Write the structure tokens for this entry.
Amino acid sequence: MADLAASPRPYDSETNTTQRQAVDALIDQYLLAQEAQAKGLDQEPAVVSAIRNARRRILAETFATQLANTAPQPPSSADIEEYYRRNPALFSQRRLYSLIIFTVDSAAVTSALLETIGHTTSADALGKALKRHAVPFDTQRLERTADELPLSELSQYSAASVGDVLVAAHANGTSQLIQIAGIELRPKPLDSARAGIERYLTQLHSTAAIEAYLAHARARSRISYYLEEGSRSHTTGAPVPAKPQSAVAESAHNRDADIAALN
């Protein structure tokens, strides 16, 4: 059994309760892991695979962060101002949308229903149309500015007028019928938008750096896709010279050493 030295700091104060709980959780985790290792559970195939996967994920995330941090210099004032000018819907002509959202079962959204609601111009008319088609619904009201909407939906909202209905289907089997109840112009000055634009452009540069590295890495790697039984496998990229047997054995040894180092 390991000798776990107690911290000399007192934990009597309520302000230390969270810290004490965190330390106790780490101690419990350590004791359980120690016993699992003593029973040889760390050698079970599922555990070895999980450790290998965790190591790969940590390394990939660490390297991706390093790539992101070595991206080009932060965007200049000219870059920020250009982005501001090129996106008036987000800034100089930003709108505030008052929305009434009708949530329905996606199976109820038929072509006949869509044709009917296409002629409605108010929430009251839309509710009556749903009732005529025997479609149960829930409603909610909310407001969203253009920069709070998903960028992929911004063009739809920018083209919409008061009374229009937008339809959004979701993976959970429901759809939203979004009635535009009101539109107000709420421009956002460049000074207010500058910090957000800088963060966004910096993120774009970081993402581009990661994607460029991956494109290069894939181009010089041989990647094989093993599909389901009965399907043909697919290989992409440049062929990779076969390793000599000694190199294969060394690679396996290093892999096992890496796994052991995580224990």
In short: Residues 240-263 have pLDDT under 50 and may be disordered.
